[in-house]
Amino acid sequence: MSPQARLSLSERRKLNKGASLKIECSSPIHAGLEDSYDLQEVLGQGALGLVRRAVHRTTGQEVALKIFQLPHQEVAAVARAEHAMLQRVDHPNIVKAMDFFTTSTMHPVLSLSYFDGMELGLAVRSQRERCLTEAIAHRPFKILLDALDHLHQRGIVHCDVKPQNILASRDFRDLMLIDFNIAICPLEQPDLVPKCSGAYAAPEVRKGNTPTAAGDVWGAGLCLVMMLSGHCDVSLDSLSVSEPCAETLRHSLAKDASLRSSVSTLLNMGWLASDATEESSECSTGKQHWQVPTTKALSEVNRKHSRSNASLSTASMGSSASSTSETSSSTSA
Question: What is the distance between the alpha carbons of residues 223 and 249, in angstroms, rounded to a whole number?
């Protein structure tokens, strides 16, 4: 019996904690890849396949190879669709599609731009405080919204904005939005409802509605909560943040999608419109203790908005059209 076999289950789990998944290069899904690429470590693995860092033997270019495990036509169609989707965008913080091909065993492969970063959630929890200060979280959140704005202006909805699909640099001054497996163009596919990650899906998506840009805003809001607290659960944690940051969170996490601000609106609001940096002292002044909104609290905010708008219409029939329009532009997606 080996020494490790004598250990208890808990002891073996501790011993193996953090060990990376090792996949042999001789696996059928790698057939023929070694001819063109020097395969490196596995960067991640999901339901459809795995991602490996690789270096092209001829050009020396470092890439991330997304290798799909099943050589089925349906899987190939998913890979082609993701490649086609990424070909429509060009943004420094959105992963780029370099190439699409199949291995000798007909496994689809996407060659993607490589970004030297860590999943956002892991990067945040690797910090000493297991969360980021408001001043440091400001930059990656603004970059994320700018990338989403680029997508939304082109009619593309990511549909799965969550920490696992965002890579962050070690200093949190740069990030990359990845994984467009289920990204859609709602105007082109109005009845398509992709399987979004339940914990991060917006309320309207969990009810079965087609994802919209507002759903991406909800996911981004949860990412900000995670950066500030170390968790994505909006019903448990309390945050001490400035009022401008709190306002951004309220507009991002409104339960009613029609009251959720668009990314362009968020980018022009007080907190994100400022040039806050991690060296700025402004973020540490004028703070208030703000409870992360529960579903009940968000519903109450939505009801107050509705009552306020109704009262405005009743009190001033002559000017209600322009007033309501201004209110909607600042609160609607």
Answer: 10
